[in-house]
Amino acid sequence: MLNSLFPQINWEKIRFAGFDLDGVLYDEFDFISQVYRPISQIIASATGADEMGTYEKLLQRWLEKGSSYNRIFSEALQNSGMDEGVTKSITDECLSLFRNFQPVLSLSPRTLILLDFMVSRFKLFLVTDGSCALQQAKFKALSLEQWFNLENIVISGCAGKNYEKPSIESLGKIGVLGTGEWEGANTVYFGDRKVDSLFAKASGFQFVSVKNMFNVQY
């Protein structure tokens, strides 16, 4: 199966498989579409704008810029006529809500099948950037403990800023990679961003670029 889905990898040599979380194991838009609703309420209440219109604009901006762009909320408050200090306070409120949100998420049938297949053949690990509380909430919502042991998960927001990809500091915190069997050539990492490919390259991993576990390399 994997030879057909991801033919760029020699799967006979693979012993370890690592994954990013957002946009890889699930569709991140599922999370964004949930968390932006209460955030749009906050912004619309502060600016007097239409709530649904604000919500749609936030989603459109996210689709254009992605989660790495950190000015979506502050942009939505521009030209509101509010004092800079008030704008910052509202932006901080939106960010706090975002980072502490409890989403309702699920894995696609495709991802479920792939994870079940892989966990029976490879040793799996997860390396993801983001807020500690938020990434833990996503992990719990997706029931990822079925495939990933806690000692094989690194969240940069929990471990420290120097663990953010493309840093390879996280490798020393992944239990399964301390078995003595690991080497870059027998490990594949699935990611969706440039920083993921840089992390894989620095680690010596083989890399597969995916969106929601769909191969995007042609």
What does this structure look like?
Helices cover 44% and strands 12% of the residues. With 218 residues, the chain is α/β, with parallel strands linked by helices. The chain has two domains: 2-26 and 105-215, Rossmann fold, CATH 3.40.50; 29-99, no CATH class. It has a six-stranded mixed β-sheet. Helix 2 packs across helix 3 (51-65) and helix 2 runs antiparallel to helix 5. It is elongated, with a radius of gyration of 19 Å. The relative contact order is 0.18. The mean pLDDT is 94.
Keywords, please?
218 residues, alpha/beta, Rossmann fold, six-stranded mixed sheet, 44% helix
The CATH H-level superfamily of the largest domain is HAD superfamily/HAD-like
CATH architectural label of the largest domain: 3-Layer(aba) Sandwich
Could you tell me the strand content as a percent range?
Answer: 5-15%
Count of helix runs:
9
SS content category: alpha/beta
Low-confidence residue ranges = none
Radius of gyration (CA) equals 19 Å
CATH topology type of the largest domain: Rossmann fold
Task: Give the distance, in angstroms, between the N- and C-terminal Cα atoms.
Answer: 17 Å
Shape: elongated
- Report the count of strand segments: 6
- What is the ordering of alpha helices and beta strands? HEHHHHHEHEHEHEE
Roughly how much helix do the residues carry, as a percent range?
40-55%
For the record, the CATH class of the largest domain is Alpha Beta
Quickly count the domains.
2
User: Strand sequence of the main sheet, in spatial order?
Assistant: 3-2-1-4-5-6
What composes the largest sheet? 6 strands, mixed
Mean pLDDT, all residues: 94
